[in-house]
Amino acid sequence: MDEAEKGKIAQKVAKGEILLHQIEKFAADANDEVEIRRNAVAKTCKIPLESMVSKETDYNALKGKNAENVIGMVRVPLGVAGPIRVIGAEFCGDVLVPMATTEGALIASVSRGMKAINLGAGAISRVTEDGMSRGPIFELNSVVDAHRFVKEWLPKNFNKIRAAAEKTTSHGRLKNIKPKIQGNNLFLRFTYDTGDAMGMNMSTIATEAACKYIEDNFAGISLVAVSGNFCSDKKQSMVNALEGRGKSVVAEAVIPQKVLAEVLRTSAAAINKVNYKKNWIGSATAGSLVQFNAHFANIIAAIFLATGQDPAQVVESSSGYTITEVRGSDLYVSVSLPSLEIGTIGGGTGLPTQKEALSIMGVAGSGNPSGSNSRKFAEIIAAAVLAGELNLLAALSTRELGKAHSKLGRNKKQLIRRKASKMQPWL
Amino acid sequence: MDEAEKGKIAQKVAKGEILLHQIEKFAADANDEVEIRRNAVAKTCKIPLESMVSKETDYNALKGKNAENVIGMVRVPLGVAGPIRVIGAEFCGDVLVPMATTEGALIASVSRGMKAINLGAGAISRVTEDGMSRGPIFELNSVVDAHRFVKEWLPKNFNKIRAAAEKTTSHGRLKNIKPKIQGNNLFLRFTYDTGDAMGMNMSTIATEAACKYIEDNFAGISLVAVSGNFCSDKKQSMVNALEGRGKSVVAEAVIPQKVLAEVLRTSAAAINKVNYKKNWIGSATAGSLVQFNAHFANIIAAIFLATGQDPAQVVESSSGYTITEVRGSDLYVSVSLPSLEIGTIGGGTGLPTQKEALSIMGVAGSGNPSGSNSRKFAEIIAAAVLAGELNLLAALSTRELGKAHSKLGRNKKQLIRRKASKMQPWL
Amino acid sequence: MDEAEKGKIAQKVAKGEILLHQIEKFAADANDEVEIRRNAVAKTCKIPLESMVSKETDYNALKGKNAENVIGMVRVPLGVAGPIRVIGAEFCGDVLVPMATTEGALIASVSRGMKAINLGAGAISRVTEDGMSRGPIFELNSVVDAHRFVKEWLPKNFNKIRAAAEKTTSHGRLKNIKPKIQGNNLFLRFTYDTGDAMGMNMSTIATEAACKYIEDNFAGISLVAVSGNFCSDKKQSMVNALEGRGKSVVAEAVIPQKVLAEVLRTSAAAINKVNYKKNWIGSATAGSLVQFNAHFANIIAAIFLATGQDPAQVVESSSGYTITEVRGSDLYVSVSLPSLEIGTIGGGTGLPTQKEALSIMGVAGSGNPSGSNSRKFAEIIAAAVLAGELNLLAALSTRELGKAHSKLGRNKKQLIRRKASKMQPWL
Amino acid sequence: MDEAEKGKIAQKVAKGEILLHQIEKFAADANDEVEIRRNAVAKTCKIPLESMVSKETDYNALKGKNAENVIGMVRVPLGVAGPIRVIGAEFCGDVLVPMATTEGALIASVSRGMKAINLGAGAISRVTEDGMSRGPIFELNSVVDAHRFVKEWLPKNFNKIRAAAEKTTSHGRLKNIKPKIQGNNLFLRFTYDTGDAMGMNMSTIATEAACKYIEDNFAGISLVAVSGNFCSDKKQSMVNALEGRGKSVVAEAVIPQKVLAEVLRTSAAAINKVNYKKNWIGSATAGSLVQFNAHFANIIAAIFLATGQDPAQVVESSSGYTITEVRGSDLYVSVSLPSLEIGTIGGGTGLPTQKEALSIMGVAGSGNPSGSNSRKFAEIIAAAVLAGELNLLAALSTRELGKAHSKLGRNKKQLIRRKASKMQPWL
Known about the structure:
homotetramer; alpha+beta; eleven-stranded mixed sheet; 14 helices; 11 strands; 23% strand; disordered C terminus
């Protein structure tokens, strides 16, 4: 389309004669469509929208898949932390971790934690559970029916339900169904193996088919909603913490006393104290249910953004626990993330920049065997989270040492000012 | 710098002779630095990293502010939902809402909810609390000291503490301090008015100064950490839900029966039932503490990403409650977000594309009076969240109506397939 | 012993020459011991302690079993509510429910709820899960060991662990072990079938033996504590709510419109509204995790006290959810109690008055088959809790109707005063 | 009444010709009434009910106050723990603590903890907050009205509301009202000073009057229920933990290394480890919200039962946190109970045996000044809870030492058997 033509349509949109989502009917392709829509919005709002223009983007590839009413691309700085040495069950080696963020100091601080971990023996990392869940809610006439369903019908018909579910998907495998009765309501939490995909879509479609099978074959049961918040998607919950969702992953490291002193300028006892008082007593006092940690969310959000994960799932993926122990003069530190929801295929992972970010870690696309790439990715993320926790706890704990230092003649005010400028963004 | 020179340094980095964060010493400016670093990473990983090249970005503007070890820019599709009619205390009018996402159907579905709201009387929106908090933890020798501090010393010295805190900032104002004793530990939750900034940095620096004043003037008190997780930053917590953090905002709408039927193809009773069973019984059963909603996180994450908010704060910003009532045949629906942490200045809001997104809503930069832009923004976000909830509840509830329809001869399979393809991404 | 002799010893105790717990060495039997100790305490405190004298009690039967340093008996009023018609899987019939309480109006109000239920079709009641748990915590050197233990060693050695556990008990049967890894820590939640006993002691002894077997046979694992709070005993927790502890039981009833109007002076819609706003929105707003109910604790505490259950277990036994639905003009109401911890043998159930209370319901002692008495008891308790909830919701909801009535000329003040005097104790 | 006459009426009741609650019409006084009712129940159930006969009880004193449909008295063993040295702000001295329980070993174990505390410097105890709350829920048409109510009307009319509330009570004083908006719903949490009474009734009646004033004077507001579960009564909640309910009380002690070794046969490090792993990591993993302790509920329940407190309030009164620190080789240990709901007048505190139990501690009836008795009582309870926690943590931690001992030749099996028999009942 020529510019005049596009301009004319944009004008009509700005006047309200054509609606935003109707532009596609008038545009030659998605690229024209985006241009027209952006111009229309710019005219309506009376502001130029030039920064979001992205000539390198082919909007035809996004269309109908990643977003609607598109007017451009948001750009977020992408850096790398590390490398970090990860000793996983599936990934072993040194790896740079891509992080997209607008918060200064975050990448630098995670890198410092990684350095300390590397100077020990690296980060050990293990995926302990793996499965994506969807939890529909049904209603029945009476608890009698719900009870009979759970105790008799469900075990007897599990294979048929599974067959119905798996018919919808080439990759998904139904692992189990966890039932929960509430009066005459029945929650069923379906958990699937979804290979390298995060698997939410796959799980929903499969569960809808399973629900249809159930409704067709158990008299008096009726689906209320295919998601009954017993999943729990994009929400923190204890069912996620106890049963896992996505990957349950743990990373740990021992930091020698020498590294604590020289790289982190602190001690095992000082870090252990801050961890206990802040992450455990503090979170409990605040009434946090599944976040006994300092800032998992910072690292999770930056990696999710860099690699095309669903940023709404930062919510439950940042659940978890930081545990420290003083071992002699060394520090043992671990992070446990029960519900890290990630994929290396599907969703935003196929967008050009996001795919490159995954490639930096060697985990873009499907793994061989299926599922191995996403588990490698989980091992790496947990190690990065470990580094972020270690560094922040260390930084906070220097407050203690700081006071000791100031007695030795260092300027206390400077020390505090320096820490302030370094520490705030990622507390 | 010429290409050869940059290539030579990149080569050295790839070989490990120069470290990633040392590149800046050899580069002419931040743009060269990014190019060298990206090339070095590409060489190391043996993959081309061409998509993340962003010629339109001046990295000198980001340097030392938004990220470290930068190698390029991540690009995320930016669309607009709406317009939606918002009737706030500070913002009144129709507004397009920018959303950055890679999840297909999200923007379209929020737009459908907005359409239904507009066909009623629009979304009423109110900021009920406003303030950013930081919650340090102190230790004392005994509860006797902690008790005396809270009952006697703190009220008597509040003004001096405030003066110490406010000396660090031109915009921040200390509103109150909420104390909480746990044994010999003492949490103090400082809450500030931070104008149009989200205000986390400002609050931390001010609180550090306040802590120093306290330590200098109350014998035997000692700061353990300036963040004691009683803030609670980047974590969900009941203290945030009860006291508020950032903006506490509520939006509501009445959807007439006719609009429910024609736009959303459902009824007030059907939506009300899904909301009760899914968002309340379901979340309670799952053990969610502050997310009695369907998918606040989806809308919050997309707007945060579009406008340069901190994506790690999606965690607590997506806390909240969806309440429905059947009023005759109409539907009353409200969303309450106790801890929406946003700003229109600072952080990532100044990046070019993010600033444009804020400009679409007319809330970029400092408002007049200070704070008004961020409150307008809060009113708009709550209205968008309301639209997202309304639409998803409606979509889920059609399952009910769907069954009725299928009796009238419509193809049930088709219906389910259609819903499946529409619904999964943003459940 | 003669009185003079006892008096002499009491005198010595009062002077501190003999310690309270040493009295047993000087007393002929437990009855003398109690008398001496009470007299000594009375002398020390300079108050007569005559009311607590209990001539009908043979302290020899309690000695070494139910309490130490005994000085008498506390007496609590025992009433009966009902009868209520219970339609359980194990108990069917009309039953009086003994309740011990000092809170006026509680028994009367539960009775009113029972009357309304009986005028419908009675209370349907079902035990959906049954098992007592104990959750030790272990530590290992690394998550690698914990992971290997859970994935390989535990499934392979489950039968041996079970054998070790069951060797300690004639009644207990190990049903399953739920593992949970936190860093290098490992929680194992053992669940047992414990017949008609509440089973906490049995479960602890069996679990200690199992832990010993594990420590002896898996290198590097070390028990930290046989109770790691993952049980969770005498605490509310989501693991109890999701997995059950003791009996998980649900009771439900449909209350016809006529009964609502005539007995409870309210309507299905009015009760449904109060239930939604108070028990769901209210509890969520307050930050209650597993008590989306009005006053389960009142009924549970009174029955526990009457029947010799452990009153500390009122804490988690009062967890649960009240769900209402309007069905035409009738009301469907259910209560779900996930962790009702009760027994009909052991603990305080063998004391004379407590055993009589159990006998009133026909559930004293061991059932045939074993376990049937405690499940019958669970069905009855849930029905009583249902009655208590129904009545309180009805009473609160008359506030609505009350306003309507006052328009018809009734004195509003009187109405409120009347309600006040009736309602407060058991809200 | 003569026996024949009473027998005749009992017969009629057993046949259903007279209802249980109608007996009072035919009985000369409450004592006869109880006898008739018990006989009727005995006939109906075909069991003798002789143990519950209590000749020493004058049922006329209970009638219309403490229970309905009374058939006798339940008897529970009453022992004393201690003495314990309490160093409170209101109570200073050594005190025996009455505990009613049927769980063997509980009193003995609390006593051992008390002994250890006494051999240090005693238990320091402080009430940090004091006030009873009632939290009604209102509805309005719109959040606009709710917002206006909270921001404008409530502060302006607080004194009038207070006057309306206080008119109903001679002792209660309204301290503050905490509002919380949820959509068009409004919670108001009224907190009162209630002197020496637990104060729930007083608070409800006063709040009903306040609600009436509000409804009469703010157009469009309507009370849904005088208890909206934002109180939170007989439920655990974060609002209770953060704001306090009843007494918020903290007790602490330092236990010298020598005492740890000789009395408790453990060390500061061993106890500290068990506390961290069990009470903090364990409770967090289980999903407990406000019970980061080992067994507060055991001590609370036994004291409540002994002294006529409301046993349903054991639920939230057992909320709290146990914190330990290693200080050199000594142990610092504290317990924080945010919502201990107790009274020394009213409820069951006036019953003969319960009053004697209060008298043992010198806190029966009204204090001078009013409120001082209940605060003294709170200081004592917290000290007893501290003793119970200390002892249980010590017992669990000897598992560690036990292993060391067994290397020195002691029989491991014996050790475990001994511990098993000692430890189970009160874990």
